[in-house]
Amino acid sequence: MNSRLTLGYLIPQFPGQTHIFFWREIAALEARGVDVRIFSTRKPPPRLISHGWSEEAIARTEYLGAIKPLKALQTFLTLRPADWWADLRREGRGLARDLAMSAAAAQQLRQSCAAQGITHLHVHSCGRAALIAALARRMGGVPYSLTLHGPLSDYGPGQRLKWRHADFATVITRKLRDELPSALGPDLPSRVPIQPMGVDTDALRREAPYIPARPGEPLHIVSCGRLNAVKGHQDLMEAVRLLQDRGIDARLEIAGEDDSGGHGFRTELEARIKDLNLGDKITLLGAISGDEVKARLLSAHVFALASWHEPLGVAYMEAMSCGLPVIGTNAGGVPELITDGENGLLVPPRSPDALADAIAALADDPDRARQIATAGRAHVERNFRSDLGAETLIREIRA
Prior knowledge:
By secondary structure, the protein is an alpha/beta fold. It has 16 helices and twelve strands. A six-stranded parallel β-sheet has the order 3-2-1-4-5-6, sandwiched between helices. A six-stranded parallel β-sheet has the order 9-8-7-10-11-12, with helices on both faces.
């Protein structure tokens, strides 16, 4: 690099249980000489702070403060909002509320970027964090860019405003990018490269060969994802019940926690485990560290995640990088990662029977399980390394 880049990096509720990708990307950026300054909206609930690097990440992160409605409104009223009158007329109270609530944080962000010599801000969200960046820019702050990680409808009002002043945006799948022109029209930036999330394939690898389940031993299945209905954990539990009924002693571990820190959807899953009489077969691990996730992956026979909707799926990538055969659902952007029968297996979402069939097929054919595991590792190593995202950000910022 010809000159040192000082980059602001804004992530909502950092460091959360699914945020290891961001930490890897930060490391990859710094390895390339970028000075990364981390911002976040607020800390996640304590039970979702689980990584070995979380303490370091918190110490490095500037939090943009608790929402103070009166102060935010006072800051907002000092602006000239002519640029977003059309947005307010189109989207109404939801956008007006978000603008007012974000204004004070935007002012803090603008001031911090100026004080630290930050020349560009990248926002890994299209939610309120993106609105904070857009407002900071309108206050005279630094240029910014966005990453879209899921359907635009998941990220609240004001999308045209959030995207209108962005220098560029990266999108994790082709499917998501194809939906943007109709949603954003002329507010879509001219540069919107596809850049999937990635994993550290050097760290997530196995030293010893993958060993499929041997005849007569329990079949160890591992899954990883937030405890949320759309992740389909309940369908995977049903599949384990079906496998047990077929005489296959399947054991399932699920790594992840619900967004309320264990007081939400987890309770429904615990009740379902009891109803299925699988208390000794299924374990909810909660939010665990990246090292613990790796250890579970390396000791398992199969990885399965039964998402109803999945923009792409870092959890699949981690399992594939660890040389573990993967079963996913033919939903969202997952087919852009997994080619059915080649580097993994795909089943329809909400289909416990199909899940059970796929798991049993791998258990019955060790050679096929090994072949899929090897192909999955090679695919992720070639196309989904975390340093590729860092390279894309640097290239687009320099452009």
